[in-house]
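Records of this kind hold a single protein each, on a pair of labelled lines. With that in mind, the following record should read easily:
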Amino acid sequence: MLPDPAPIEVFYDGNFADYAISYNSGASRFTITDMNATDGDEGTDTITGAESFVFNGTAYSAADLQTEAARQANTAPGSPAIASGGAVDETAAAGTLVATLAATDADGDTLSYQITDAAGTPVSDPDFQISGNEIRLRPGAEIDFETAQTQTLYVTAADAFTTSAPQQITLTINDVAEDIVLADTGVSFADTGVTENFIQGGQVTITSRGPTTPTISIAAAATISSTLAPGMTRSFQALEMIRSMLAMVMTTLSSMAERISSMPAPATIILTSAMATQRLMRAMART
């Protein structure tokens, strides 16, 4: 019986990185081309059956060369983009899906996505994280429409061998009516988005929940400044306004008392009460 043949080992003088390598899996054939002619051009070799390759004294297995051939043949994935979504409410809970990502890959490889800085270095964003191809709200995130209506991330797509250039992704923060509590004195509040449903600032509370008319509760000593139109501001003392309102109510009630005896039906009372309310509202509008 003849002994088993010794494993075939192929030697090259140049460094491993100096060679272009391709692999035909059907024929189990390597094609190796020297790309650095300055240290001695070794040309192109077609090799089958070799189990080991030595480049400038360093040994590589056939599996190593197959991996290198796949890397060299690989096409880098395209830049990622938002496939769906892209907006999130400012009050959303941790883990909320914000957007899904997609990128093209000519080789059909499975892609992974990562948040980076503008140079492509991976970073941890305080508000958002990526799971698979999904951007989700991170636990402890502090997104606020009044602070920033959009946020920008840089994201890369990667296959097994290469990574795309970082792509800028813009996410929109949706405004949501919130309960807002201001400091007791010297407060200033500007609402740039949707109308809030509850605002409290020390001696003033404004509540508007549900379909009912907003309720305004004002402490007697509170001073309120309200902007009615661009460049037009009215200031008034809450105490004086309340006194004026009470005086008008007393006058209206006195007038109603004089007429009650002559009113023939409840409908007349209701009508007069409505007229008194309208008169009260007009008087308030003039203050």
